[in-house]
Prior knowledge:
Strand order of the largest sheet: 1-2-8-5-3
Shape: globular
Oligomer: single chain
CATH class: Mainly Alpha
Number of helices: 16
Radius of gyration: 21 Å
Mean pLDDT: 91
Strand content: 5-15%
Largest sheet: 5 strands, mixed
Low-confidence stretches: none
Structural class: alpha+beta
Number of strands: 12
Helix content: 40-55%
Bound molecules: protoporphyrin IX containing FE
Number of domains: 1
Order of helices and strands: HHEEHEHHHEHHHHHHHHEEEEHHEEEE
Amino acid sequence: MTITDGTVNTNLSRLKFWAQPRSTHHDTFRWLRENKPVSWHEAPEALDPNLDNAQGFWSVVKYRDIQHVSRNTELFSSAEGVFVDDFPQLETMLSFIVTDAPRHTEMRGIVGVAFTPKNVFKMSEDTSRIVREIIDRVAPKGEGDLCHLITKEVPGRIFATFMGITDPDQIQYVMDAAEQFACWNDPEYAHIGSPLQVFADASLKLATLAIELAKERKEKPGDDLLSWVAQAQYEGNKMTVEEVGVFFALLAAGANDTTRHSMAHVLALFDQNPDQLAYVLEDFDARADDAINECLRLEPPLMHFRRTATQDCELGGETIKKGDKVVMWYISSNRDGEVFENPDTFDVRRIAKHNPHQAFGGGGPHYCLGHMLAKQTLKAEMWEIYTRMRDLKVGEREMLLSNFMNGVKRLPATWMPEKR
Ligand code: HEM
């Protein structure tokens, strides 16, 4: 659908649309929520020149419709792909996020077993330590790009720790592969090939290493997530080492970019709202959780996930045909005025019960596995940064061109250098 009545351009299929400022996207989504909550769009312009998107897609932009799609897994399947773009090979690299029940339930059950309270406590201790170590290095500098210095560094190191890696070369290898995931569209990686090949290459590197490590940990478990997952059993089932490897590639993709871009938005939002930052810091333990949820609501790092209709059905007054792509735009539903008061306003006083945002999904069985850990990481980063990098001033966010990732490429900043 393209409506260009002089004020609103709804052509979500074109990269040109996504190259516009984010405020323009929000104008479009507001218009769609009010006028066409479920709308048909032509096949998206392919991100990868070697691939053609064969089909158009339905855009779902309202909160309750997204909840319906997300929770109704018999009608809306994840197994055909989760991006608006067709990336067939890529989707087999994304482990159980591209499966439906019963396989999804089984795989998620096995991984869930590894997330015991004791293990989660260990991961959260590791997270706080890693954040502290990174800020130890960055705080004395006084200026730099916070994406490069902090936001990409933190999840990369956390992820390497989860794999139980201590060798610095191997840590760097994992971080480079994870970085490559985030930059599939970046010309810097064009020597590897098309965006799909960039992504596939990163996935293969991580999965191969994880398989190797999983074999070792099956024999000799360590105290890390990879060992816990390799050992975990759910209703008598275990993952094969190959499945563990692919799952770790999914984790690298799922955990790195999201947390990284979210933190960049947190820093930009608080820079624009210093009074709200002061309010949070006055009682950090009591207020940080709501503040982080508010940042995630206003700036969800993942703008959409997709499902495929398994049969003809009705949604928002439209007839969806079996096999149609159905795209859930979280970037829109998080500003749905039927659910959120003053939806475009950043307000850290918005308490949890008034902020059931969909940054982590619409509440179906694929709801983000790492949501607690992600929030814990953002909280640890906020604390270290705002208590140690005094007079922090950040510049404009340089945004990534993408129809999927609400990404920040660069965030220049200055602060008072911390004295050693
Ligand atoms: C701010 C950070 C994050 C955001 C906004 C986010 C968002 C999401 C969303 C929207 C989904 C898909 C929901 C759906 O399809 O219905 C998802 C799935 C997933 N996320 Fe996250 N995520 C974040 C961080 C993480 C972290 C840190 C991890 C790992 C430790 C993680 C692991 C996963 C996994 C494994 C899935 C697939 C779950 C499934 O298919 O059952 N995520 N995430």
